[in-house]
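Handout for the seminar on molecular recognition.
Each group receives one record of this type.
Step one: identify the two inputs.
Step two: read the structure output and locate the region that could contact pimeloyl-AMP.
Step three: write two sentences on what you found, then compare them with the reference statements printed after the record.
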Amino acid sequence: MLYSVRMRSAQGGAHEAGGRHISGAERLVPEQHIERIAGEMVARALSHSRGSADFINITIDKVRTDELCTVPLLTVKTVDVPHAEAGRKAAMAALVQTGVSEQAVQAGMEALLALPDSMRGAMLLCAETGKRLDGTGQSGVRVSRMDIADDQDYRQCLENLGLTNVHVREALVLASKVAAAPGVVAELCWSDDPEYTAGYIASANGYCRFTQLKSYGSPVGGRVFFIRPGIDLEALIAYLRRQPVIVTVK
Ligand code: WAQ
Ligand code: MG
């Protein structure tokens, strides 16, 4: 039996009361690991580089085994770029390759760059027109209820790629769930941690990292999901938020 353990933290009050988003985390774990994982999440929220949280919400609920679905871990590629501007240019070209229109790529990039501060979730944009589709404003759609099938295998797999930090660990699982969603063409992301400049684009064809997508020191990051027009948006958002997904390492 697995439990969804998720955390969101903010500063200056709860998110819904206007607090500033600090950090979040999502895991699916067996009962005997709940306490440890929840404790680690609290510790992270209290000592985050975006600031110390004064609101921490931990939610734990049981996931029905017959609800679980599995998706494959995306393949990983890293592109070294000399600075953020070069990274964003390369990421934009790569997004067009996945089938997102130039207009939508432009709109997605501008939406991330225009953020006054980080949201706790993602913006959903039409992959053709670039228009914002979700009605969630400054909170965004938070992807939840996903984890890796086997921690040991995963650590080994990432180590073989020379990747060991927690950012990649979490982002690759999230991106694998998102890329497998019916109707998602691609994702664009960079971190909101001031010291972490890398970001990625992902699609069913893989996870492509760029060593720099934002300038060092910026606390503003975010995610854009580019959505195929005409799909059932409500079903997609339900999948992103609630479908329990286990990501398998090949
Ligand atoms: N669902 C939707 N959006 C999210 C979620 C989620 N579960 N978690 C974070 N976000 C959004 C939110 O707007 C954050 O401000 C933003 O993404 C960045 O989140 O390969 O660390 O957790 O080296 O800071 C990417 C590169 C790191 C990793 C991404 O994201 C690599 C990262 P962060
Ligand atoms: Mg972060």
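Reference statements: The pocket of pimeloyl-AMP (ligand 1) is lined by residues 24, 26, 118-122, 140, 142-143, 167-168, 171, 174, 189, 191-193, 196, 198-200, 209, 221-223 (CB under 6 Å). The chain has a mean pLDDT of 97.
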